[in-house]
Amino acid sequence: MDKQQQPLEDLQHIKNMMERSSRFISLSGLSGISAGVCALAGAWFASQKIHCWVKGDCQLSNLISSAGNELINDLFWIATITFIAAFISAFIFTYLRSKKNGTPMWGSTTVRLFWNMVIPITAGGIFLIRMMQMGEYQLVAPGCLIFYGLALVNASKYTLGEIRYLGYGQIVLGLFNLWWIGYGLQFWAMGFGVLHIVYGAMMWWKYERK
Amino acid sequence: MKNPIENLNKIFDSRIRLGIMSALMVNDAVSFNELKELLDITDGNLASHLKTLEESGFIKFQKGFIGRKTNTTYSITKTGEKEFKLHLDALTKMIGSVK
């Protein structure tokens, strides 16, 4: 029996070492869920803001300063705060998981994942900022989803491979959004909110449930 | 049929050496400290296994510096890659023959 188990265990050991040395595997499913919840909260705030601006039934103090630019400005801040909150909460859960598993949080795998994520996102971000400067707001929402999706597909080689499917989901949503301009917020809530939560829950179920 | 066990390399009998080779197969270069964290072993233990692998010509090392601290990184040689693949094949065949 022992003799037969040995090669199988050796192969498992090899696979495990290859994965642990080349991929960032501490990424927690809970990070996905928390980021998704932040995104949904942000989308809710933004929709309230838009609603109040369109209908004009906000409080007096808000109304006074509600020039056209003001709304964009407010939405920009909501998006920024949402992103920071999502990032911090995602970081915390992943940090906790790496501590629990005893895998280092900061190693060459983290650096590799970081750069492969940052390059497409930065390029996309600059592209979209430039578009906004030129007064093109329509394609910002689908653009965010598409670039984010591409970044995830790219990152899937350096972390849990399943993140690729999250990326596909974002890209598909972004592409649909191209023909459903004006529903950007709903698509955002779907992509950054619902998809993250679904992905996070599935990853948690698969790897972390005990 | 040739017995696949003949292709098993004695050097890879040790789990630690197998682990080192696995990590080096999928990475261009891995530092001493990263290997230590991955395998969770002491400096001395790791060093002796690395020495065995190096003397067999399976791995090579490169000394560098991060600031003032020495940073030794290891990478796999052509021979090491070939031997590791043979070993992997042998393991796979053994599992196949059990089934």
Main features:
heterodimer; A: 210 residues; mainly alpha; B: 99 residues; alpha+beta; Arc Repressor Mutant, subunit A; three-stranded antiparallel β-sheet; 3 strands; 55% helix; 18% strand
Topology readout:
The complex is a heterodimer of chains A (210) and B (99).
Chain A: H1 2-22, H2 29-55, H3 60-64, H4 68-101, H5 108-133, H6 140-155, H7 163-178, H8 184-208
Chain B: H1 15-26, E1 30-31, H2 32-39, H3 43-55, E2 59-66, E3 69-76, H4 78-98
Antiparallel strand pairs in B: 1-3, 2-3
State the major sheet of chain A: none
The second-level CATH architecture of chain B is: Orthogonal Bundle
Low-confidence stretches of chain A: none
* Uncertain stretches of chain B: none
List the helices and strands of chain A in order: HHHHHHHH
Number of strands of chain B: 3
**Structural domains of chain A: how many:** 1
Strand content of chain A: under 5%
Average pLDDT reading of chain B? 86
Q: Report, as a whole number of angstroms, the end-to-end distance of chain B.
A: 16 Å
Q: State the end-to-end distance of chain A.
A: 29 Å
Q: Approximately how much beta-strand content do the residues of chain B carry?
A: 15-25%
